[in-house]
Write a structure and sequence with these properties.
Blueprint lengths: L10 H25 L3 H23 L10 H36 L2 H11 L6 H30 L15 H21 L4 H21 L2 H18 L6 H12 L2 H8 L19 H15 L14 H4 L15 H33 L4 H20 L9 H28 L1
Helix pairs in contact: 1-2, 1-5, 3-13, 4-15, 5-7, 6-7, 6-8, 6-14, 6-15, 8-14, 11-13, 13-14, 13-15, 14-15
Length: 427
């Protein structure tokens, strides 16, 4: 019996689908390169070159290839906490507070990166991940090289070392958080990636540039976060590496110039408008911000004051010893979450982080390929650095930082999906 051909069987239809899949390839590479270099390039690439053709192909097939991922419910919990906080923000500051919070909730599109990577990358060829990794590390190194250039130029022009804040193409604190994640990924790749010697030497050179850029930025919280990330990566990857960690720390303290050490010692002092010198601002400036922020949280403990409303209440709660006014956030992930979203929001964040760690740990331990093992290890280190730095900065509120974290998670889910599909086909 002759089978009736459908449009799905036609060569023209298959050619269109092939074109849409290939159209995504430069988008994936630009997206990876932009993650640590330019978030505008990153967004244009992922949404125009990847998501749009992916949805077009799904519409032509009349089938949207969605599946359950480990972060579906955690992301839903985060959004639910933002919606609840926005709804109750009307009781805190009227329509101004409520509308602003709802607007920022709608604009929070970072999780879309995770789902786009998780759903669309699994259909691509394995070589693409290598090209994306190369683009990512090259982008991070290029941004770092620019930060070093900014630092050297400012010092050559007579600027005080401690007033220079190079961040390449980013705000310097954002740059510091991005480099923590990029360097964590590079270290994990060096340790667990099956790389030829030439590739390892090239990655080592890029890693050195990234470290130089992070040092030039003088972002103290990023140094602490990176130290924690590298320590955890070493513990997970090979416990024999642990002996080297204290040696490196001691050597760094001995070799580092005294001004750099004083800069590190002053981590509780955030920058102020009139700050000069090595430590920036009055003693324990961050602690003062934390105290004021916790006073706000004490009055709105359950659901907080709404997203991006801190700056409009800060002056009402600061005391006479406070220096700054209209502080936008608490320079601390956990305090800021309590202020904006209350205990409900902090619980949702804890649930999300637990699920994220579980995803990376399972991905590392159960990896069926060297690539999955590297991504799992990079995710473990990056999440650790993100959380530790988050004690001193609001890293969770920085799109550029969470974009890398969500991308690592999406890649791991896509790899698992592809491996499951290949095993099912071989059975």
């Amino acid at each position: 019996m002759n089978r009736t051909l459908s449009i799905d069987d036609s060569p023209a239809f298959r050619a269109v689908l092939t074109f849409l899949r290939r159209w995504q390839i430069p988008g994936w590479i630009l997206f990876a390169g932009g993650l640590a270099f330019s978030i505008s390039i990153c967004n244009w690439a992922i949404f125009v070159f990847v998501l749009l053709p992916f949805l077009t192909a799904a519409d032509l097939r009349r089938r949207l290839p969605l599946y359950h991922t480990p972060l579906d419910w955690p992301f839903l919990a985060l959004y639910a906490s933002m919606i609840l906080s926005s709804a109750t923000a009307y009781l805190v500051g009227g329509t101004d507070f409520g509308n602003r919070s709802f607007l920022w909730t709608v604009m929070y599109t970072a999780p879309l990166l995770y789902f786009t990577v998780a759903f669309a990358l699994s259909d691509q060829k394995p070589w693409l991940l290598k090209a994306m990794a190369a683009a990512f590390f090259l982008g991070a190194a290029a941004n770092s090289a620019y930060a070093v250039f900014q630092f050297a130029r400012a010092v050559a022009e007579g600027a005080d070392v401690f007033t220079v804040r190079p961040g390449g193409r980013m705000f310097y604190m954002t740059y510091g958080g991005v480099m923590v994640l990029a360097i964590s990924a590079a270290v994990a790749t060096m340790l667990k990636g099956r790389l030829p010697l030439r590739t390892k030497l090239a990655l080592g050179a890029l890693l050195a540039v990234m470290l130089a850029g992070l040092a030039a930025s003088l972002v103290r919280s990023a140094w602490v976060g990176l130290a924690a990330a590298v320590f955890v990566i070493a513990v997970v990857a090979d416990r024999r590496l642990l002996w080297a960690f204290p040696v490196v720390v001691v050597l760094a303290v001995i070799i580092a110039p005294r001004p750099i050490l004083k800069r590190a010692e002053s981590i509780l002092n955030a920058a102020t408008d009139g700050a000069t010198g090595e430590t920036e601002g009055p003693p324990e400036f961050r602690v003062d911000i934390w105290r004021t922020s916790l006073r706000i949280a004490r009055d709105y403990p359950l659901t907080g004051i709404g997203v991006h409303n801190t700056i409009h209440l800060y002056d009402e709660y600061k005391d006479e010893t406070s220096v700054e006014s209209m502080v936008p956030h608490a320079h601390n992930n956990y305090i800021q979450l309590v202020v904006e979203r209350g205990i409900v929001g902090l619980a949702a964040f804890a649930y999300f982080i637990f699920a994220l760690f579980a995803l990376f740990i399972r991905g590392y331990r159960r990896a069926r390929s060297p690539t999955a093992r590297v991504v799992g290890l990079a995710g473990i280190g990056a999440t650790t650095g993100f959380l530790v730095e988050g004690f001193f900065e609001y890293t969770f509120g920085d799109y550029e930082i969470v974009a890398i974290l969500y991308t690592l998670a999406g890649i791991l889910v896509a790899l698992r999906r592809r491996e499951d599909r290949e095993e099912a086909a071989a059975a």
